[in-house]
Amino acid sequence: MSALRVVLHAPTVDGLARARRNALNLTRARPDTEVLIVANGAAVAAALDTPDPATDAWLRLCRNTLAAQALDNPNGLGEVEAAVVTLADLQTQGWAYIRA
User: Fold this and answer.
1) CA 75 to CA 60: how far, in whole Å?
2) Which pairing describes strands 5-10 and 78-80: parallel, antiparallel, or unpaired?
3) What pLDDT is attached to residue 3?
4) pLDDT at 2
5) Model's pTM, two decimal places?
6) Of 49, 98, 99, whose CA–CA distance to 73 is shortest?
7) Which residue segments constitute the domains of the chain, with CATH numbers given?
8) What number of other Cβ atoms are within 10 A of residue 91's Cβ?
């Protein structure tokens, strides 16, 4: 079985919680999985307000959302320039897309 590459899209507060659970469940079931959580919209503020050491290494915050909502990233969570571009790029590279 080949390694999975999965990008979980978290655009909402509830979506972020689901993406974090999904990432943990996925990596427990398939330890060789590459996983990323891309957060934009309301999920960005939620990620900043509720850090999760178990999944934050996989998390990428949308810089467009950070700027639009005038948010800082004091904990240095991973960032991407634009969630939409990152999601499209990863899919063209063969990553499976799941909206959480």
Assistant:
1) 12
2) unpaired
3) 87
4) 74
5) 0.96
6) 49
7) 5-99 (3.40.1260.10)
8) 12
pLDDT for 53-92, tens place per residue? 999 999 999 999 999 999 999 999 999 999 999 999 999 9
4 DSSP assignment: P
* Cβ-contact 73, 93 below 8 angstroms: no
Extract the tokens encoding 98. Answer: 């799941």
Helices of type H across the chain: 13-29, 42-49, 63-68, 83-92
Residues composing the chain? 100
The pairing of beta strand 59-62 with beta strand 5-10? unpaired
Give the separation between CA 76 and CA 61, rounded to whole angstroms: 10
Instruction: Quote the pLDDT of residue 92.
Output: 98
Q: Nearest CA to 16 among 41, 96, 53?
A: 41
